[in-house]
Amino acid sequence: MKLQHYIGGLEGLEPSSFEKRVFVQSWEERIFGIHVAMMGLSDHLEAVKTVPTQFKSCWTWGHLRKGAEGLNPFDYFKYRYYEKWLGGISGFFMESGYVSSEELDAKTTAYLENPAAPLPKGGEPAIDEQVMEYLRVGDSPKVDVAVQPKFKVGDVVTVKNPPPVAHCKLPGYLRMKQGVIDEVYEGAYNYYFSTGDGVGNSMPIYNVKFDSHDIWDNLSEPKTWIYVQIFEGYLDDPA
């Protein structure tokens, strides 16, 4: 399991940054815009089939997180928020064949030598309209599939300890801990791709209540609880 999956309650980390600005540098706005455009033009969306785009891949929040979490832990904590975005997106474009590493290096060198050089301009109304519509309606993971929940409110459950993978939807500090089902969300939910550790197919999601002392012993305040939304694939009957 990567360290970046296990930082909740971990002692000895450097103090967190309390930067309040959404974007610190101008390039961060651009990488945010690229990510949003990629989500809005992802080929898993039905509306994209009629949009004249050269982007022919599936891209979601999950893919962005996979790229960031796949970093070496030392790099993960070294780089700032949008630097991790930039690395994940750049790696995806190279792996998918949209740009070569040589082309990317050449563009990087050119802009470092001349930061004031004009940026590429585009403009396709159908693409702009699709991205704006995606921002309005989003992309819900809820699916119209009849799935019978394995657990009900009040059931005691144990969190599984799945094998480590590049991208994980389970907080590391909950592994092997027991909690109580507080709410069963209506319907079934899928994930955009199989993570390799039990999440991917359509399944229920639960709100699970944990005693903080069961997780962090006396390091937490007395009589405090934490609530975590967890895919059914990460839960099991109590041992």
TrEMBL record:
Protein keywords: Lyase
Gene3D superfamilies in the record: 2.30.30.50, Nitrile hydratase, beta subunit
Pfam assignment, any one: NHase_beta_C
Keyword Secreted among UniProt keywords: no
Catalysed reactions, as listed in the record: an aliphatic primary amide = an aliphatic nitrile + H2O
Cited NCBIfam families: nitrile_beta
Function as written in the Swiss-Prot or TrEMBL entry: NHase catalyzes the hydration of various nitrile compounds to the corresponding amides.
Protein name: nitrile hydratase
Organism expressing this protein natively: Trichocoleus desertorum GB2-A4
The gene coding this protein: nthB
